[in-house]
Amino acid sequence: MNQAKVDEGGTSDAGPLTTEEREELKQLRRQNRELQMERDFLKKAAAFVCHERDQ
């Protein structure tokens, strides 16, 4: 099934994603990666601060 037909609503709910949905998914995955990296950085920074404080 071609993308234009999917974008026009030619599939069921379980069918392929529309172009808009694909773009949103791509954006959400990118945002998720960024948030995970930020979380990991903050965990390391907190561990460093706690280690420095204990010395």
Automatic annotation (TrEMBL):
The name under which this protein is listed is Mobile element protein
Protein origin, superkingdom: Bacteria
Q: Which InterPro entries match?
A: Homeodomain-like_sf
Q: Where is this region: Disordered?
A: 1-22
